[in-house]
Structures are given as C-alpha cells and as structure tokens.
Amino acid sequence: MAVHDADFSDVTALAIDETSRARGHDYVTLAADAEQRRVVFVTAGRDATTIASLGLDLAAHKSLPEQIESVSIERLSSGQDRAAKAFEQLTVELVAAATP
C-alpha cells in the first residue's frame, strides 16, 4: 500500500519518540499506532511544529485529533506540552522520569 493511501481511522493511541538521526543535533520524530504497532508518521525535527504536522498528517489519513485517546511520550517538559497543545482531549502517559 502506498503511504498516501494509508487509512489511520482506527488509531486511538499513539507512541511518540524523537531521536538523533546522526551524530550532532539532527533529530527525527516518529509516531506509531500504539495498539497496532505500526509507524504512522516520521518527520525531521523535534519542535512544536513536528506535533502539529503529525496532527495534520493524521487528519489527511482519516484520523482526527479528537479520536486519539492516549499518547505515550518519553519527554516530560517539551514533549508533553507539544502533545497537549496538538491533541487537547487526550491522556498523556509519561514513560520516563522528568528531565532536569
């Protein structure tokens, strides 16, 4: 199936992580369907625009922000804030301790 034909209308839980793609400070953000264990979104960067882009991409694939019931995300300070702004009615699960 081509990516542009993907249907994510059944996605209700997301797992989001960001990682360095090479030595240095080039990051990618990845979002996966936490229940079906499939990647639904990957983009360069790790700022607030990456989560906004995730919301737009999910909508383009028949998944609306209001159907997302939970998000597991590793970063407390910036990650939780970005997710909360993009998906207002979700429950954010923090999977790691707060970073100092």
Give the topology.
Elements: E1 13-20, E2 27-33, E3 38-44, H1 48-60, E4 70-73, H2 77-86, E5 91-94
Tell me what the structure shows.
The chain has about 100 residues and is of the alpha/beta class. The chain has a single domain, classed as 2-Layer Sandwich (Nucleotidyltransferase, domain 5), CATH 3.30.420. The chain is built from 2 helices and 5 strands. Strands 3-2-1-4-5 form a 5-stranded mixed β-sheet, covered by helices on one side. The radius of gyration is 13 Å and the shape is globular. It starts with 12 loop residues before the first strand and ends in a 6-residue tail after the last strand. The C terminus is likely disordered.
Tags for this model:
2 helices, globular, 5 strands, alpha/beta, five-stranded mixed β-sheet, Nucleotidyltransferase, domain 5, about 25% helix, about 30% strand, about 100 residues
DSSP strand content? 25-35%
The CATH topology comes to: Nucleotidyltransferase, domain 5
* CATH structural class: Alpha Beta
List the domain count as a whole number.
Answer: 1
SSE class: alpha/beta
Q: Could you state the CATH homologous superfamily?
A: Ribonuclease H-like superfamily/Ribonuclease H
Helix-strand pattern? EEEHEHE
Unreliable parts: 93-100
- How large, in whole angstroms, is the Cα Rg? 13 Å
Question: Kindly, what is the distance between the CA atoms of the first and last residues, rounded to a whole number of angstroms?
Answer: 42 Å
